[in-house]
Amino acid sequence: MKVAVVGCNGQLGTDVVLAFKKNGHEVAPLTHDDIELSSLESVEECLRRINAGIVVNTAAMHHVENCENQPEKAYAINAIGARNLALATRESGAALAHVSTDYVFDGRKTEPYVETDAPLPLNVYGNSKLAGEHYVQSVNPKHFVLRVSALYGKHPCRAKGGQNFVDLMLRLGKDRGRVRVVNDEFVSPTSTADVATQIVALAGSDAFGLYHATAEGDCSWYEFAREIFALAQFPVHVEVASPSEFPAKVPRPKYSVLENRELKKAGLSVFRRWQESLAVYLDSADVVLSH
Predict the structure, then answer these.
(1) Could you state, in order of their start, the residue ranges of all structural domains in the chain?
(2) What's the rounded Cα separation, in Å, for the pair 221 and 209?
(3) Angle 192-203/274-283 helices, nearest 10 degrees?
(4) Is 211 assigned a catalytic role?
(5) Which of 75, 113, 125, 135 is catalytic?
(6) How confident is the model over 10-69, as pLDDT tens digits?
(7) Sign of torsion, CA 222 224 225 229?
(8) Which of 45, 93, 202, 222 has the fewest CB atoms within 10 Å of its CB?
(9) What is the dihedral sign for C-alpha 71, 74, 79, 84?
(10) If DSSP codes are grouped into helix, strand and coil, which group holds residue 242?
(11) What is the pLDDT of residues 215-243, one digit of tens each?
């Protein structure tokens, strides 16, 4: 199968390209230089030339503060861009796998969100991503929409200065010997390699729909940091930071844990517990050697 990966040079996109190649698929990697998501003409021309059986969209404007300050740009990429991909893939008969976010929820639940829970985003980023979901679902019936959470991977996340939370903790721990992390925000830390594996599994099926796609289990950012240092065997003192110590410039959900209910019902979930995936990530030579 020929696969087009939009955002191929991002943290998730790089792993998606590798995962499809590992499974014997022909991959067309696409960067912003190849395709302008906000332009339907650009999207149609690019995808017509490639003629892929499935298009995977990992591209997004996902720096939360920048989205809040530039809402038109956020909607152009996250919403209209998704619509353009849906229109072009519907026209060609291709399937579309579109990556969304846990930020479509307001975080007021105290148990994991399932796919049928009503979204209520708190910020421009979440709203623009939710709009993108709706466009994909309403335009191309052959869609996979995957909501992910708290991603980390080997490849730099350019929107976040090139460092994910794991790398940031390791660097701060090495430099300072102690870190302070909030204990009142809960997520499901998820490896980009695992999300990529999940996308490949879905692409081999016709189980189109909306899916939550995160590691099993959940933790606070404080608990996540403690596990990072425990597994890395770094003697770092982790302290609980007060909620006011790192004030958010933009409202964010306090609880954005997702349950992969639909993946499990379809018998397609590949996810492990978050601690297992974190251990695999930390065991990789290039991560260990860099700290």
Answers:
(1) 2-289
(2) 30
(3) 110
(4) no
(5) 125
(6) 899 999 999 999 999 999 999 989 999 999 999 999 999 999 999 999 999 988 999 999
(7) positive
(8) 93
(9) positive
(10) coil
(11) 999 999 999 999 999 998 888 888 898 87
CA–CA gap between residue 152 and residue 190 (Å, rounded): 6
**What element of type H or E holds 73?**
helix 71-75
Q: What is the C-alpha to C-alpha distance for residues 125 and 133, in angstroms, rounded to an integer?
A: 12
Give CA–CA dist 144/146, Å, rounded: 6
At 27, which helix (H) or strand (E)? Answer: strand 26-30
DSSP-derived secondary structure letter, 216: B
pTM: predicted TM-score of the whole model, two decimal places: 0.92
What is the number of other CB atoms lying within 10 angstroms of the CB of residue 35?
25
Tell me the one-letter amino acid at 15.
Answer: D
The answer to whether 170 touches 228, Cβ cutoff 8 Å, is yes
Q: What is the rounded CA–CA span in Å between residue 46 and residue 32?
A: 11
* β-bridge pairing 186-187 and 219-220: antiparallel
Following CA atoms 146, 149, 155, 160 in sequence, which dihedral angle do they give, to the nearest 10 degrees? 120
How confident is the model over 140-187, as pLDDT tens digits?
Answer: 999 999 999 999 988 866 665 667 889 888 888 888 888 898 998 999
Q: Return the structure tokens found at 202.
A: 């879905």
The yes or no reply on domain 2-289 and CATH 3.40.50.720 is yes
* Dist. CA 147–CA 133, nearest whole Å: 9
Q: What is d(CA 281, CA 83) in angstroms, rounded to the nearest whole number?
A: 34
